[in-house]
Design brief:
The protein has 427 residues and is an alpha/beta fold. It contains 16 helices and 15 strands. Strands 2-1-3-4-5 form a 5-stranded parallel β-sheet, with helices on both faces. Strands 7-8-6-9-10 form a 5-stranded mixed β-sheet, with helices on both faces. A 5-stranded mixed β-sheet has the order 11-13-14-12-15, sandwiched between helices. Strand 13 and strand 14 form a beta hairpin. Helix 2 runs parallel beside helix 3 and helix 8 runs antiparallel to helix 9. The model has no long low-confidence stretch (mean pLDDT 88).
Length: 427
C-alpha cells in the first residue's frame, strides 16, 4: 500500500484529511513542518499532502527542504483555505503537483491524489529505464554523475570507489554468464551497506561507486569493506563451488565530503588514487585519500610518490578542475608567464542560461575541443574559466570560432550564444 504523509497544524483538519485518505493509503501524520521532515526521513512516503499556511515553517519551505534532502523529486499536494491566486501560482512555480482548497470534498481529494501518484509512477518508471544499469539494477554511470554530483555539493558524507579484485579470472575460467551472476550478487551486497537516502551505481565493468550521507569516519568504511569481502567470497563459492580458488574480493578507495572537496570530478580522481593505493597494498581492503600523504607515505620512494600524484588515466581532453584548484593553477601560471616570458591566455565564457542540460553539453564541448594542457573550471551555474598556456592572444579568436562551430551542432544553440572574453594572465 502506498504511503502518504499528511501535514497540518490544525488538529481537526489533520484528522479529517487523514480519515479520508486512510481508506485507500497508509497514513503518517505530522502537525508541523519540523515534525514532517523527521517523519519523512524515517518513513519515506510516496507523497506529501500538506497544509500551505503553517507557523514557523510553511508548506513552501517544507517543500523546498524536502526536495533538497531527497535524491528523487517528492510529489506534494498543497491544502489551503486561502483563495489568493498568487499563492496558488507560487505553489505551482516551486513544483507542487496539485493544489486543493479547504473545505474539500473527499472524492475530489482522493481523485487528485490518485492522479498525482499515477503520474509519479509513470515518471519514475521512465526515469528508472533511463538511469538504471540493466544488469544490476543500480544507477548507471550517467545518472550517478548527475545525482551524486549534486549530493556532494550539498551534503557531508563519504564517496567510495569500489572495484572487484581478480574478477577477470571469473570470466576467463567460468565464462561471462557466471561473471554476470557475480556482478548481480555483488550489487545486492552493495545495496545492503547503504541506506535509503544513499546512492550507489555501476560505473561500468566491475567498477562501482557509492555515496553515503553523514559518514565521516574511517572505521565505518572499513566495516563496510569487510562486509563486502566476507560475503562476496561466500556467495562466489555458492555459485562456483567450494573448491573455487580465485582470490575474489573488493578494494575500496574513499574520500570524505567536504574535507576532501565537493566537486564530483575531483572527488572521483582522489578516490581513484586511494583505490589504486588499496590495490597496491594487497587488495581486499580500503584506503583513504587523506592518508596517502601521511608520514608513512613520505618514506616511500620518488617513483611511488609520482604514481600517487599522477592521473591514473590521462584523457585526451582539457583538464577540468574545481574553483579552488583553478585559483592555485592560475597563480602558478602567472608566475610561470612572468618568469619565462611565455604567453598564457585567460578566457572567460558566460552563458545566458542556467538550463543544466545546456550547460553540461557546453562543458563537454569545451573539455573535448581544447588542448590537453588547457585547464577548465566551471564558475557557478553558467560561467567557465579557461587557462591556455603557450597560446598567443591572436590564437584566441580561432579557438573561440572552433568552440562556437561545435556549439552550433547542439540542439540548445538556437536558444542562446555564449559570450567570450579573453586576455593574457599578465595584462
Amino acid at each position: 500500500m502506498q504511503k502518504i504523509l499528511v501535514v497540518d497544524d490544525d488538529p481537526v483538519m489533520l484528522r479529517l484529511a487523514s480519515l479520508v485518505v486512510s481508506k485507500h493509503y497508509q497514513i503518517i501524520t505530522a502537525s508541523s513542518g519540523e515534525e514532517a521532515l523527521k517523519k519523512f526521513e524515517v518513513e519515506k512516503p510516496d507523497m506529501v499532502l500538506s497544509d500551505l499556511m503553517m507557523p514557523e515553517m510553511d508548506g513552501y519551505e517544507l517543500h523546498r527542504i524536502l526536495q533538497e534532502k531527497s535524491p528523487e523529486p517528492v510529489p506534494i499536494i498543497f491544502m489551503t483555505a486561502d483563495d489568493n491566486e498568487d499563492s496558488e501560482r507560487r505553489g505551482f512555480d516551486i513544483g507542487a503537483d496539485d493544489y486543493i482548497h479547504k473545505p474539500f470534498k473527499a472524492d475530489v481529494l482522493l481523485r487528485r491524489i490518485e492522479n498525482v501518484l499515477k503520474n509519479q509512477n509513470k515518471i519514475r518508471g521512465l526515469r528508472q529505464a533511463v538511469e538504471t544499469d540493466s544488469l544490476t539494477g543500480l544507477l548507471n554511470k550517467n545518472a550517478a554523475q548527475k545525482k551524486i554530483s549534486e549530493l556532494c555539493k550539498k551534503h557531508p558524507g563519504v564517496l567510495m570507489m569500489i572495484d572487484l579484485d581478480s574478477f577477470k579470472l571469473v570470466n576467463d575460467l567460468y565464462g561471462h554468464a557466471m561473471g554476470d551472476k557475480i556482478l548481480i550478487k555483488f550489487s545486492e551486497l552493495i545495496k545492503k551497506i547503504i541506506r535509503a537516502s544513499d546512492l550507489a551505481a555501476r560505473m561500468g565493468g566491475d567498477e562501482f561507486i557509492a555515496f553515503c550521507h553523514d559518514i565521516q569516519n574511517e572505521t565505518t568504511v572499513k566495516e563496510k569493506t569487510e562486509f563486502l569481502n566476507e560475503n562476496l567470497l561466500a556467495a562466489a563459492k555458492e555459485l562456483m563451488g567450494k573448491d573455487m580458488n580465485i582470490p575474489l574480493g573488493t578494494s575500496v578507495g574513499a574520500v570524505f565530503i567536504p574535507s576532501d572537496g565537493t566537486d564530483f570530478s575531483m572527488l572521483c580522481a582522489k578516490a581513484d588514487k586511494a583505490l589504486y593505493e588499496a590495490k597496491q597494498s594487497g587488495k581486499h581492503s580500503c584506503a583513504f585519500f587523506s592518508d596517502i600523504f601521511n608520514s608513512q607515505n613520505s618514506r616511500k620512494n620518488i617513483s611511488h610518490m609520482k604514481m600517487i600524484l599522477a592521473e591514473r588515466i590521462v584523457k585526451d581532453s582539457a583538464f577540468l578542475v574545481e574553483i579552488n584548484s583553478f585559483k592555485e593553477i592560475y597563480r602558478l601560471f602567472v608566475r610561470y608567464s612572468l618568469n619565462f616570458k611565455r604567453d598564457v591566455q585567460f578566457m572567460q565564457i558566460t552563458l545566458n542560461t542556467e538550463n543544466p542540460d545546456a550547460v553540461e553539453q557546453f562543458r563537454e564541448i569545451l573539455i573535448n575541443n581544447l588542448q590537453l594542457s588547457d585547464c577548465i573550471c566551471q564558475n557557478g551555474k553558467k560561467q567557465f574559466l579557461i587557462l591556455m598556456p603557450h597560446t598567443h592572444f591572436q590564437e584566441c579568436e580561432s579557438i573561440k570560432e572552433k568552440i562556437i562551430s561545435k556549439w552550433k551542432t547542439s540542439p540548445f544553440a538556437k536558444f542562446f550564444s555564449p559570450i567570450f572574453e579573453f586576455e593574457s594572465v599578465t595584462e
